[in-house]
Write a structure and sequence with these properties.
The chain has 151 residues and is an alpha+beta fold. It has helices at residues 12-16, 20-30, 44-50, 60-68, 82-90, 103-107, 122-132, 146-149; strands at residues 3-10, 33-40, 72-80, 116-118. It has 8 helices and 4 strands; from the N terminus they run βααβααβααβαα. The protein is globular. The termini are close together. The mean pLDDT is 97. The structure holds 2'-deoxyadenosine-5'-diphosphate and magnesium ion (MG). The site of 2'-deoxyadenosine-5'-diphosphate has 9 residues, from loops. GO terms for molecular function: ATP binding; nucleoside diphosphate kinase activity. Its EC number is 2.7.4.6. Its cofactor is Mg(2+). Keywords: ATP-binding, Kinase, Nucleotide-binding, Transferase.
Length: 151
């Protein structure tokens, strides 16, 4: 089982609505390991870099304004298949298309208030982790449950 890392961010609506605990719990209970976490007010600069692939989209400015209201919770989660499984835990981009049981499916209604970000590939996860975190902000630790989560 190949262990990888994923960048997950609770957006300002998730923070304001008091969903941080339940969101973190969904990754924790699945067996993933939290190796980085911080609250911050993101600058427009970092958000424009983070979402640079969407710079030409008509919703780009609204998207950056929404998340730059802050604060956000930026996290790095580690474990097998965390990028793909993270997308499954989060749901579809539009909360109305997201299955009940996913974060967006359970807690959201609009694409412009979809609560959480998760990287869409291993390459973008690595890019986003490097954008949001310094190396010394990632904590390598041994979870005592590891041998009861992994065979
Ligand atoms: P995701 O967050 O599911 O990876 P994305 O990377 O395509 O989705 O887009 C990033 C964010 O941009 C998304 O979470 C919400 C916003 N967004 C995407 N498509 C949109 C649309 N059609 N209208 C408004 N906002 C949109
Ligand atoms: Mg995306």
């Amino acid at each position: 089982a190949l262990t990888i890392e994923n960048f997950i961010m609770i957006k300002p609506d998730g923070v304001q609505r008091g969903l941080c605990g339940v969101i973190i719990k969904r990754f924790e209970r699945k067996g993933y390991k939290l190796i980085g976490l911080k609250m911050l007010n993101p600058t427009e600069e970092i958000l424009k870099e983070h979402y640079k692939d969407l710079a030409d989209k008509p919703f780009f400015k609204k998207l950056v304004n929404y998340i730059s209201q802050g604060p956000v919770i930026a996290m790095v989660w580690e474990g097998v298949d965390i990028v793909k499984q993270g997308r499954r835990i989060i749901g579809e981009t539009n909360p109305l298309d997201s299955a009940v049981g996913t974060i967006r499916g359970d807690f959201g209604l609009e694409v412009g208030r979809n609560i959480i970000h998760g990287s869409d590939s291993v390459a973008s996860a690595n890019r986003e982790i490097n954008l949001w975190f310094k190396a010394d902000e990632l904590i390598q630790w041994k979870n005592h449950s590891t041998e009861w989560i992994y065979e």
